[in-house]
Amino acid sequence: MRRVVSVYLPHWSTDRLRRQTAKSPPDRRDTPIPTRPLVTAIPDHGRRIVAAVDAGARALGISPGMTITKARSFAPELDIVDAQPEADVEGLRRLALWAGQRYSPIVAPDAPDGLWLDITGCAALFSTEAALLKDLHRRVAAFGVSVQIAVADTAGCAHAVARHVPAGRPVTIEPGDHRKAIALLPIAALRLEADVVEGLRKLGFERVEQLIGAPRGPLAKRFGRSLHRRLDQALGTVAEPIEPIFPEHLPRARCGFMEPIATAEAFAKVIGDLVAEIVDQLGRVGKGARRLDCYFHRVDGHTQVIRVGTATPSRDQAHLSKLLCAKIETVEPGLGIESMTLLVSLMEAVAARQGESLERLGQRGPDLAALVDTLSNRFGSRCLHRMAPHPSEMPERSAASSSALDTARGAGWDDDLPRPARMLARPEAIEVIALLPDDAPRMFIWRGKRYRVTQGDGPERLHGEWWRDAGIESAQPLSIRDYYQVETLSGGRYWLFRAGDGENRSTGSMRWFLHGAFA
Question: Which residues are registered as beta bridge partners of 446?
């Protein structure tokens, strides 16, 4: 189901100006700077009127459209700056490009004071939709910009809720509840012209729910088609596509079709052609792709996108095509796709084409980067990591996770000291029958089940790291663990240890633990 976020910036013009001119005193960085109410002004038939206000000016009763003379009567100390509409639009565009890099490939400015984000399928990057919205709200607010955020199934509903349901946190309209959420809002929430809103109020219409149940013919004849088009967009019965914006400096390729296409084979053929063009552009600038976005523009106006990433900068045409084609199954073509766009949303410099160095040296090896890319794009990069040896006497500290392509950590595993293929996150206490001090256990009870030992090997003595908390027993200068490999009557092989040397209580508690199992 489609999920659209509306980001409302109620004081965008004035917040942008304050952020642009803000300076902290060098000797009083922690002292808040008192600010006077701020408005922007535009000329209007020989006079100046208010174009935008900040929160302080709005609290004093100043509103857009008011003359500057009247505004000064509310606040004599008012700061007045000439409006910069072109700079406001450009700043909004830069903010949209920033959001597109972090949250969703489908982002567009909603001039003059907002953004659109289609986050369909993007919530998994932040684990939940709520986490995505919280991160977006926190980061935009950190820029010093007032922000209100809402998410719903339709763009119209999200836009209305963001602007007419004040809240200090993101507002979430649950899937399927957009009709109920929009019904109780004022008719102005439908993005209608001011004269249409005033005309409807004169007829007694105050809330959207009144419009939903009213006959359409007389209203359409009086107010035009835009009234019910906006209503249907908010209800989701009419499509409202979001046309994403792209950074101008990034490599991009587009292909339009005379007839819509809808098959996976056709998509794969077009992707191959687009990737070939992109690779040629990357080669000219000496860079490789780290992230690619492929946009599918449907006949009904909706845009779908698939995003893939690479572990290292790549200009390998076959590899990039394979990554993109693996996600074709997630595309819903609807009535057909009329055009496709491929964008390199993240790229990095590369010294040479992949594989050239190996071929030059006459070497061939496994393409680990290609395997990492395939697994990361299928299961998510957070699910993929490499285990590397870490210097420590304690087994639970002897391994650490790192990046899947990180081959620099550690010198390698010690084959002379085999460790279990599966180790418990925390050793579990067991009951043991054994002859002290050095014999392997004859029988042990783990998780309520009895295991009879047929043969055992050990002990392998490890001395505790007294300068660190051992995690199992309290740290002691003479703490010792004696490890045993045992095989049970059923064929299982386990790794057990005793805390202590079996004789002196100063070396440990003499309790037994199970730490892992061999494959």
Answer: 449
Give the position of tokens 């293929």: 421
**Does residue 445 register a pLDDT over 50?**
yes
| Three-state DSSP class for residue 460 | strand
What pLDDT score does 310 carry?
A: 87
Lowest mean pLDDT among 32-41, 123-132, 214-223, 499-508: 32-41
Cβ-contact 37, 79 below 8 angstroms = yes
Taking the CA atoms of residue 130, residue 133, residue 139 and residue 143 in that order, the dihedral angle to the nearest 10 degrees is -140
Q: What per-residue confidence (pLDDT) applies to 318?
A: 92
Task: Report angle CA 480, 481, 485 to the nearest 5 degrees.
Answer: 160
Residue 366: how many other CB atoms lie within 10 Å: 7
Q: What is the pLDDT of residue 415?
A: 63
Amino acid at 255: C
Structure tokens of 186? 């004022």
Question: Is residue 325 over pLDDT 90?
Answer: yes
Indicate the average pLDDT of the chain.
85
- HEC readout, 295-307: EEEECCCCEEEEE
The SS3 assignment for 423 reads strand
Residues 6 or more apart in contact with residue 50 via CB below 8 angstroms = 39, 40, 41, 62, 63, 64, 65, 66, 67, 68, 71
Query: Has residue 448 got a pLDDT over 50?
Result: yes
Rounded Cα distance, 290 and 405, in Å:
14
The number of beta carbons lying within 10 Å of the beta carbon of residue 342 is 23
pLDDT: which is higher, 29 or 249: 249
411: burial class by Cβ within 10 Å (0-12, 13-18, 19+)? exposed
* Cα 162 from Cα 64, distance rounded (Å): 20
Task: Give the chain's end-to-end CA distance (angstroms, integer).
Answer: 44
CA-CA-CA-CA dihedral for 60, 63, 67, 70, to nearest 10: -20
Q: For the residues 390-419, what does the mean pLDDT come to?
A: 66
- 171-172/252-261 β-pairing: unpaired
Q: What is the mean pLDDT of residues 485-503?
A: 90
Task: Grade residue 519 by pLDDT with cuts at 50, 70 and 90.
Answer: low
Residue that has been written with the tokens 């922000």 in this structure? 147
Query: Do residues 437 and 501 lie in contact, with contact meaning Cβ atoms separated by under 8 Å?
Result: yes
Question: Tokens 């496994």, residue?
Answer: 366
Joined together, the tokens standing for residue 406 give 């990180």
Strand segments, DSSP code E, in 225-285 are: 252-261
What interhelical angle do 368-379 and 317-325 show, nearest 10? 20
Which of 251, 325, 254, 257 has the alpha carbon at shortest distance from 291?
251
Q: Rounded to the nearest 5°, which phi and psi values hold at 127?
A: 75, -45
d(C-alpha 359, C-alpha 371), whole Å: 19
Match 């070939």 to its residue by tokens: 276
Residue with structure tokens 């408005």? 39
**Tokens matching residue 348:** 């990095």
Please, which pLDDT band fits residue 356 given cuts at 50, 70 and 90? very low
